[in-house]
C-alpha cells in the first residue's frame, strides 16, 4: 500500500531566529528533516509532501526537495494566511500563521492515500517511522476515519534553553482518551512544570505531531477550522492546532486513535541554542552507524 510522508515546514522559526527547516545540521550540510525522510523511505514510504510557504519555496526546493526526486514522488503544498473558507476575510492585523491544523488543509488536493504527518524541525528516530508504517499498513485502503499517534516520553522532549509546548496525552488500553495542548513546559529542580506551575509526570506521553491519518479526516479539519474562525478569527495570535481536531473527534466518540510509544530519543531545534545538541546527537548516531556519514553519498544504496 502506498504511504505518504507529509512534513510541516511552513513555520517562521521566530524563536530559532531563522529558517530552521533548511539549517545545515548534519556533517555534510544535511537539514534535520532529511534524516526523517531517510528514515521514512527506509520504512517503506514512497511519497513526500512538503508543506511550506511560498516566500521561500524556490530556496527550499533547490536545497531540500530536489535531493529526493530520484527516490520518491515529491510534491509541495503551500500554507498561506489568506487561504480561508468562503465567507471569511483575513484580518488586517494578522501576521502569524494559523497553525498546524490549517497547514494540514493545504494537502487536500495532493494526498489521497494514508499518510504520516510530522514536524520538519523534530528528530523522531528510525523506529518511530517503522511503527508508523506498520500502523498505516494495518489500515489497508479503508475510507473510514482513522488516526494514530506515535508518542514520546515527556522528559525526553524538553529543551534546556527555554519552554516548550507539548500535547500531553491521556491514554487507556493503547487508545487516546484526551490530548491537551500544554504551554510553557520546562524542567525546574527535578520537576517538570507547565506555564502555571503545575507538575507534569515525567513519564507522560507527549504528542510531538507525529500522526498517522487517512484522507477522510481532512473533511473534519475543514469543518473544525470554520468553527475555529467563527470564534477566534479576530484574535491575532490564535492558532488552530492539529491535535485540537483529533481531541474533539475522540471526545465525541467519532474517532478511535491508537497510540504507540516510541523508545527513540527525540530532539529538535526550538531555540538557536538547541543547535549544538542536535549537531552532536547526529554525530553520535553516525558513530553508532544508525546513519551514513553523508546522506547524499550513501542514500541510494542504503534505502
Observed structural traits:
303 residues; alpha/beta; Spore Coat Polysaccharide Biosynthesis Protein SpsA, Chain A; eleven-stranded mixed β-sheet; two-stranded antiparallel ribbon
Describe the structure.
- This protein is of the alpha/beta class.
- The chain has a single domain (4-302), classed as Spore Coat Polysaccharide Biosynthesis Protein SpsA, Chain A (Alpha-Beta Complex).
- It is 28% helix and 25% strand.
- It has eight helices and 13 strands.
- The protein has helices at 32-42, 57-63, 100-105, 126-139, 217-232, 242-251, 275-287, 295-302, and strands at 4-8, 47-52, 73-78, 115-119, 122-123, 147-153, 164-172, 175-188, 191-193, 199-200, 205-213, 257-261, 267-268.
- The strands form two sheets. Strands 1, 2, 3, 4, 6, 7, 8, 9, 10, 11 and 12 form an eleven-stranded mixed sheet that branches. A two-stranded antiparallel ribbon has the order 5-13.
- The longest helix has 16 residues, at 217-232.
- The chain is globular and about 50 Å long.
- Mean pLDDT is 91; it is low at 12-18.
Describe the SSE topology.
Layout: E1 4-8, H1 32-42, E2 47-52, H2 57-63, E3 73-78, H3 100-105, E4 115-119, E5 122-123, H4 126-139, E6 147-153, E7 164-172, E8 175-188, E9 191-193, E10 199-200, E11 205-213, H5 217-232, H6 242-251, E12 257-261, E13 267-268, H7 275-287, H8 295-302
Helix pairs in contact: 1-4
Amino acid at each position: 500500500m502506498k504511504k505518504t510522508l507529509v512534513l510541516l515546514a511552513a513555520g517562521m522559526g521566530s524563536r530559532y531566529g531563522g529558517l530552521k527547516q533548511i539549517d545545515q545540521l548534519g556533517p555534510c550540510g544535511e537539514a534535520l528533516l532529511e534524516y526523517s525522510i531517510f528514515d521514512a523511505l527506509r520504512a517503506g514510504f514512497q511519497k513526500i509532501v512538503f508543506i511550506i510557504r511560498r516566500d521561500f519555496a524556490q530556496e527550499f526546493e533547490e536545497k531540500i526537495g530536489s535531493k529526493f526526486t530520484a527516490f520518491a514522488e515529491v510534491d509541495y503544498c503551500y500554507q498561506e494566511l489568506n487561504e480561508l473558507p468562503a465567507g471569511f476575510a483575513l484580518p488586517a492585523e494578522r501576521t502569524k500563521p494559523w497553525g498546524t491544523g490549517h497547514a494540514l488543509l493545504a494537502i487536500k488536493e495532493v494526498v489521497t492515500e494514508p499518510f504520516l504527518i510530522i514536524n520538519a524541525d523534530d528528530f523522531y528516530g528510525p523506529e518511530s517511522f517503522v511503527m508508523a508504517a506498520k500502523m498505516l499498513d494495518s489500515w489497508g485502503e479503508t475510507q473510514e476515519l482513522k488516526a494514530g499517534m506515535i508518542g514520546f516520553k515527556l522528559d525526553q522532549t524538553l529543551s534546556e534553553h527555554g519552554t516548550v509546548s507539548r500535547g500531553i496525552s491521556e491514554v487507556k488500553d493503547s487508545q487516546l482518551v484526551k490530548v491537551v495542548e500544554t504551554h510553557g513546559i520546562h524542567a525546574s529542580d527535578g520537576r517538570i512544570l507547565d506555564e502555571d506551575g503545575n507538575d507534569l509526570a515525567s513519564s507522560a506521553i507527549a504528542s510531538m505531531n507525529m500522526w498517522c491519518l487517512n484522507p477522510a479526516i481532512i473533511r473534519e479539519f475543514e469543518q473544525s477550522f470554520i468553527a475555529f474562525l467563527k470564534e477566534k478569527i479576530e484574535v491575532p495570535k490564535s492558532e488552530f492546532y492539529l491535535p485540537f481536531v483529533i481531541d474533539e473527534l475522540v471526545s465525541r466518540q467519532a474517532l478511535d486513535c491508537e497510540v504507540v510509544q516510541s523508545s527513540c530519543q527525540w530532539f529538535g531545534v526550538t531555540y538557536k541554542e538547541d543547535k549544538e545538541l542536535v549537531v552532536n546527537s547526529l554525530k553520535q548516531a553516525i558513530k553508532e552507524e544508525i546513519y551514513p556519514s553523508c546522506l547524499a553519498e550513501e542514500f541510494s544504496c542504503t534505502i
